[in-house]
Amino acid sequence: MKSNTLQSFLLLAIVVLSNSIFAQSTTKTKQAATTTKVVTAVKVVGINTEASNIKWIGKKILGQHNGQVKIQSGTLTIKNNAISGGEFTIDMKSITCDDLTDADYNKKLIGHLTSSDFFNVEAFPTATLKITKVLKNTKIANTYNLTANLTVKGITKSITFPATFKKVGNVFEGNAKITLDRTKWDIKYGSSSFFEGLGDKAIKNEIELNVNIASN
């Protein structure tokens, strides 16, 4: 009788121990699976400078001008096929005007924009933009709110702007519309905020930039 009781007790102990080991194994397996799920794929891709561009619009009281400026180089940081960062260098010597068909007037405007009155490209041939914060819009697909440090003429200011970003085939494409107050980067020429009596010759402080990015 005692032998049967001992055997029953040992059998029960083995069952309990087995269940405990199985439970621990299952828990570890679940934890491993959970860990696998949170592993993220991060990569850095280069910018296709030929397929990327920045279009600018500058307005004055009696009209406006528009043109382009080239992206010299850049990279995008991608996390699970979504943008998580990026750095770009802009070639300020590449500024063009698209709306003036008169060659002399066009050349005169570009000469003024690249002078010390505006971007002073001889002293500051490049500008840079570095993304510092990415907020994804959970309600609208492929849309973001980006914060970045923009350096122009050696002056760095934080800016925030809306953007779209998506993967098309093997290429990542992004678009953003940025409105800047140029005076924050010490570009004050023709600004009624700093000069009186300009009348209809005043130039608005806001510059609009439409940025189109494509990866390699």
Key attributes of the depicted protein:
Lipocalin, alpha+beta, 48% strand, 8-stranded antiparallel β-barrel, 216 residues
Summarize the structure.
Helices cover 22% and strands 48% of the residues.
Detailed description of the structure:
- With 216 residues, this protein is α+β, with helices and mostly antiparallel strands.
- It has 2 domains: 1-39; 42-214, Lipid/polyisoprenoid-binding, YceI-like (Lipocalin).
- The chain is built from 2 helices and 9 strands.
- The chain has helices at residues 2-38, 103-113; strands at residues 42-46, 53-60, 63-79, 82-97, 126-136, 143-152, 155-168, 171-181, 203-214.
- An 8-stranded antiparallel barrel has the order 2-3-4-5-6-7-8-9.
- The termini are far apart.
- The model has no long low-confidence stretch (mean pLDDT 89).
> Hey, roughly how much beta strand do the residues contain?
over 45%
- Give Rg in angstroms: 29 Å
Question: And the CATH topology of the largest domain?
Answer: Lipocalin
- Across the major sheet, the strand order is 2-3-4-5-6-7-8-9
- Give the SSE string: HEEEEHEEEEE
What's the CATH H-level superfamily name of the largest domain? Lipid/polyisoprenoid-binding, YceI-like
